[in-house]
Amino acid sequence: MDKALTIVVPVYNEEDNLERVEKELTAYAQSAPIPVQVLFVNDGSKDKSQEMIEKICLDSPIFNYVSFAENRGLSAAIKAGFDETQTSLVGYIDSDLQTTPSDFNLLLEHIDAYDLVTGVRANRKDSFVKNMSSKIANGIRRAFTSDGMDDTGCPLKIIKTDYAKRIPMFKGLHRFLPAMILLQEGKVKQVPVQHFPRIAGQAKYGLWNRLLGPLMDCFAYVWMKKKYINYSIAKKG
Q1: Domain extents for the chain?
Q2: Residue 13 Rama label (left phi>0; alpha psi -120 to 50; beta)
Q3: pLDDT single digits (tens) 68-105
Q4: What pTM, to 2 d.p., does this model score?
């Protein structure tokens, strides 16, 4: 399969950001070193997001979408994006664009040698409470997974699609993507990327989501790790 990238963009009530998403991802696709497609996953939005997504996809051949019947959460949206991807690489970026599509190029520089490359948000532009809760949650997660990652919540990642499709997703597993690649005996790397303030829309996570939620997810990960089946096919007839 020739190298190409599908960028998954989960959307939940982001009508104020979607015009900018279209503009920035179109510009990136035009300058990217490999062919790029964009897949919106509308996670049951209740605003005008679906209407705007359909218009964007009608106007440009690089944009496509899937839309949930009801809100199922970020992990479900990312999983649906992985399942729909047909290209050799799958990326992920949030629709709030607190990371920039141009930094996908920083990740692409390493993807030949690794199976997942994730961004690490340098000089984060979030509130003190948000930054500290994320730092604590990342420390808890590292203690459980030993994945060595400093910022698994960074919404900028590229994964080889074969690996992404083998991830058994559960609620909250978007925080464990590097750990799930390591379970497949894959290689992971983190790269510093830019970070920007949210300029429109509302954040979907509060203190509870960032601390207690991830702690409970760690126990789910430990259970799943013990049950995880990993195999590779040597030959077919």
Answers
A1: 5-227
A2: left
A3: 999 999 999 999 999 999 999 999 999 999 999 999 99
A4: 0.84
